[in-house]
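Standup notes
- HV: blocked on the assembly model, inputs below
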Amino acid sequence: MIELSHVSKRFGDEAAVDDISLQVPKGKFCALVGTSGCGKSTTLRMINRLIEHSEGDIILDGQAIDAYDPVKLRRRIGYVIQHTGLFPHWTVARNIGLVPRLLKWSATDVQYRVAELMHLLGLPVDEFGHKYPHQLSGGQAQRVGVARALAADPDILLMDEPFGALDPITREKLQDELAKLQARLHKTVVFVTHDMDEALKLADHLVVMRKGQIVQQGSPLALLQNPSDPFVESMLGGLERGLKQAALTRVKDHMTSMGPTLPAQSRIPGVFSLRQALSMMLRDHCDRLTVVDQHDMPVGELSLRRIIKEAQLDNGNTRE
Amino acid sequence: MTLMDALPTPRLRWEGRHPNIVLVSFSCIMLAAFWVFDVVSMAPNRIVLGTGHGALEAFGWPGALLVTLLLACIGILAWQPSHRHYRALLAAVVFIMALMPVGLMASSYLLIDPELPQARLGIGAAYWLVLFVLLLCLVELRLRLNLTRIWPTLLLCGVALVWWLCAAFGLGALALVQEFRARDQQFLSAVGQHIKLVSIAVSVSIVLGLALAMLMRRYARLQKGAFAVLNFLQTIPSLALFGLLLAPLAWLAANVPFLGQLGVSGIGTTPALIALIAYSLLPIVRNTYTALEQVSPDTLEAAKGMGMRAGQRFWQVRLPLALPVLLEGVRITTVQAVGLTAVAALIGAGGLGTFIFQGLGQAAMDMVLLGALPILMMALVVDAGLGALAEALRPGGTR
């Protein structure tokens, strides 16, 4: 559990972060989104005391962070940065084992943990353990960065634009892997990004920041349905907003039972999003899809009319 | 499929290869030097100026022909170079260098009159020029063959061994050897003194330089001032610095008995060491400072964020990553100090410079060489050795 209440950071007269309050419950994924210079990175770095906050309280598991020794505090918080920050003179295995070694784990424990993490992140130890960071691709290097952050099994993970320097395909792959990892590990994550799609895809709690202040926070769906001002709306993609919202809703939550008419030709798995359903309708020139389960058995159907009606209903509900 | 497709495409043997202009012109320069300038000179005794002898007189026509062929061979091999040719070229260059003392033996046999025990053979302009250009060839070949620095050094050590053996057993008539034989004890102690001066000066300036660089990182204000002073020191001509130290140190020695007992005096080792250290500080401090500052901020930020303490960050991250550039500074400094120490002989600090200045005073060029050649070799060895060390210490084997 991370709690920020009325936190500010001033550099001279300039307020980089201005009176922000936010809570990240244990096991939740919180994304800070905003344009560059909005104070999102500063906020993140105040949590592990790389930057000391000027005012307000930052509370970690019920204790103010000022009460911790900064070094010990950082050792129990995983930290991932954009350009990986891997040590170029150390092998991958040694890089990953850094924090456990700082915590004076025994050599065998470290070795075992490194192997476990490399397996978890799809980097076979035999192939990658002895390599140096410059021998890795961008995606592999950032996997090592994530493994290093997870090494001492911290409850909290801070990620500062971890995928910002990767090509779109690698980025998407790593986002998917991170989502899967989070579903298994349930870390308390604070994730900084300027990529709204990335935030919408990963976050449980979305915080939009501008000029050091929080403009709006809430669940991704809530923000999409009801952006509080034009800035948040433009961050959320303006006209694309409808599609982004559709991307967050699963087909099987909106399907209807099979009607009396002939089943539609096009089939879509229930776990897909409404956005993918819409795309399929456009591609196949139809307004009805047959929803199937993982065994490709029809379980329901979804019509264009239904999608539009649901969207109306959702947005109406939140407005009330 | 037509018949034409079935036929193998005729491939030109030298397709896509261009002459290596550098090596070809080197070959031409060496050939010209060999035939135009004096290969050796011969003097009946130490005082008389020697008379020069060209290629034919020095080696006889079979020898001159052999040398011409060998030198031309470099140009021919470099005309259409392949990887194999470059290797052959490397072998040829090393072979010629190893053959050079044998050539001197041949000309001493041809030219020196056994009736004149004082007669001496001098190495002529052509010889030096060819040797110099061969070394340049070696540099070019090292780059072409992508060899690490240590290889040419090892080859040159082999060549030096051949020269040494020839000088010891068959080149008694060579003026350089005669100069050496006349003062071999003095020579050895001069080499020892030279090495001693250089190593003390360099190790003291490494310690001082590291400390100064650390202080500069801590106190930003110190940085400008210190660099200004060090830069200023560097601009004082070495001779002047030695001279400037003379008066204050003599005064100190006379008035502070403790320092006098320690061996401080206006001339000799102390002022020499002070001047050498003053010159050595700038390259060391500059390289140490930049080396420590150029470590990627991302890496250091990560180290801090992972929970490394300041000391751990310095010893485990910053210093190892700075080491190659830092060592580069040590290399530059040592090479510079090897040369500068020669000047220190002027104020009675000893070392190989003694021979240079004595030789200059007596107009005995061979004696100058007796001092200059070992200095040159020392500088080359230091350069190659520390260079190879810096290369080996690059982070994560990045070459």
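- HV (later): unblocked. The longest helix of chain B spans residues 184-218. Strands of chain B lie at 40-43, 51-53, 120-123.
- Next: hand off to the docking folks.
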